[in-house]
Request: fold
Amino acid sequence: MSKAQKFLTGPTIPGAPTQIQHSLDQAFVVAEDINMGTTRHILFFLLFGVLLSFAAQAKDSTLRCDYCGQPIVGDYIVADSHSYHTSCYENHVALRCAVCGQIINGEHYVDFWGNAVHAYHKGVEPQCEYCGRFISEYTTGGGFRYGDGRIVCKLCEKTAVEDSATVDTIRSQIIALFNTFGIAIDDGYIPISLVDKKVMARLDNDHIDPNGYTYIEKTTSLGITVEQNLDIFLLDGMPRLHVVATLAHELMHVWLYDNGPDDMDPALCEGSCNYAAYLVLQQYPGKESEYIQTTFRDEPDSIYGDGFRRVAEYVEDNGVAEWLSYLKSHRNSPW
Ligand SMILES: [Zn+2]
Ligand SMILES: [Zn+2]
Ligand SMILES: [Zn+2]
Ligand SMILES: [Zn+2]
Reply:
C-alpha cells in the first residue's frame, strides 16, 4: 500500500457499521483536500468525535444481555466484560456460595468438586472427613457426626462400611488386583477388625496412619520365626473407596513383612504401601477415586507424602517389577 493511500484511509472504529467507517474515510479525504494544516486537524477531530459518539449510541441502543440475548433497558450488571439483566445475572450467572447460597463477590475458595464457597467459611463450617466437601444442604444434603467425633457428609455415608462381609469382599478384590501387579500375598489367616477412632488411637500411638493399622508381632528363636501375630484394624464407617485404599495400604505392609527386610526406612515402607494403594485405586474409575489419589499426591507428611512421591518417581523410571524386587532386598531408600 502506498503512502498516499494509507493516509487517505480513516482510523478504524472497532464494531462501527460500514457506513460510519466510509464517512470517516471521506472525512480524511475532505481534510486532505482543504490542505490547511491546523484547520485540517481541527476538522478531523471534530468529525472523529461526532462519529465516535454516533457509533457509541448505535452500540448502546442494541445492548443485549449476554445470558438471555434480549435487549437491555435500564439498569444492568457488567461482570467480566459481559452485560446482563440484573435478574439474569443474579439467578443464572453469579457465583453462588455452596454453604450459604449467597452471591460470591471477592475472596472465595473452590474445592476439588467444583463447589465455590466464601473464604470466611473455611475453618468455621464443617468439612467432610473423607471427601473434604463443606457440609451443607446444597453440597451434600447434610451430614453426620459419628460417636468418635468424625464429621461425615451424607454422600460419603451412603457407602459407609460397617460389616465384615463387605470388608471380606473388598479384601478379595484387592488381593486379585495385587496379583495382577505381581504382589502375591496369602492373607487368609489375618483377622480384620473394624474399630472406632478412639480405639484406633490407642492401638496406633503415633497417630500417623489414622484410618488403618497393621499389628505385627514376631517371636524368633536363633533367627527363626517361631510365632507370629498379624492383625489388621480399620476405622469403621469409612466410605467404601476409603476402605479399599486403607486395606490395600495395610495389605502391602503384610507383603513387606513376608518379603522385605525388617526395620525398613519408614519413608520407603509407608511410601510403598501408599503407592500399592494408589495402584489399586487407579483400577476404580470415578471422581471419588481421583479425589483420594489427589490426597496421596498432595499429602504434606514427610514420611507418607514424600515417601509416596519418591516411590512413584522410582516406579515411573524403573517399573513395578523392579520396585518390588528392590523392596525384597533393601531396607534403605534408593534415593
Ligand atoms: Zn437477560
Ligand atoms: Zn457463603
Ligand atoms: Zn463426604
Ligand atoms: Zn502404613
Remarks:
- DSSP finds 13 helices and nine strands in the chain.
